Amino acid sequence: MDFINRKRMPIDLASHIGEEVTYEVDHLKVKGLMLSPKEKVQRIVIYLRGGKGKVGRVRTGRLLQFSDPHTLVFGPYYRGNNGSEGRDEFSGNDLHDVTQAMDILKYLYPEAYVHLVGFSRGGLQGLLTFQYLPADSYIIWGGVSDLHLMYEERVDLRGMLRRMVGHPKKNLDAYEKREALQYIDENSPPILIIHGGKDKQVGIHQGYYLAEYLERIGHRYETFYQMQEGHVPRPEALKEVLEVIHKWMDCIENNK
User: Fold this and answer.
1) pLDDT digits (tens, 9 = 90+) for 91-127
2) Which of 24, 49, 83, 235 is the most exposed place for a label (fewest CB within 10 A)?
């Protein structure tokens, strides 16, 4: 099991090799960006992007935020984006783009720890997949935890959601299938919730909603709220977030 194509990218890094990889999912050729360490792979981080199309696309700088000399970082583009075949379904069959990539990476590096990071729209992608993967933890950052809440909150995105998912009343089944919390139980991997108090893209109540549910079912989780930050933290706040994420991953692994 492996990727069907690896294209070396013009990324000049001392510690990692940058490649755009292609793999087959549901008879579609799907792509993603991968930064592989030149040292032994001891950790895998799957970064689940936000946005759609060119907005929020996977970038080298973003993946590097989660790297260290022994960490492989992979970001799926999702089908229908950046040269990948198919159609983006906003947490529909495009979830297979995450699970198939994880299957390949765990086959190649069976001893490595695995952490998922879901940002913005990617938050829902991760919540719908992390408990089925050989993941050690999940980090949801400014992430969507409930699609109904998103539909009500983001009037400007309702047209896009109706095209990609449907109307929440007329296509109730499609929304209910994407209700991620129903799939999480006390045995799912631990979750770190990160959110900005001034986030206008994904309101912080999405983080509260998830935390309240996890507390109710006795699930292991932690929160890190930056009440003065928006969807993307300012430089100093961003540095603080990344320190929290790396400490979280280290703590999870050290307690295995």
Assistant:
1) 888 899 999 999 999 999 999 999 999 999 899 999 9
2) 235
Question: Residue with structure tokens 């509260």?
Answer: 208
Of 139, 128, 97, 120, the C-alpha closest to 51 is 120
CB proximity list for 126: less than 8 A, separation 6 or greater: 48, 98, 116, 117, 118, 138, 140, 143
CATH of the domain at 73: 3.40.50.1820
User: Could you tell me the pTM of the whole model?
Assistant: 0.94
Q: Is 231 part of the annotated catalytic residue set?
A: yes
Q: Residue 71's domain spans which residues?
A: 5-254
State the catalytic residue, choosing from 84, 120, 137, 188: 120
Positions of the chain with pLDDT lower than 70, given as ranges: 51-56
Catalytic residue among 70, 205, 231, 246: 231
145 catalytically annotated: no
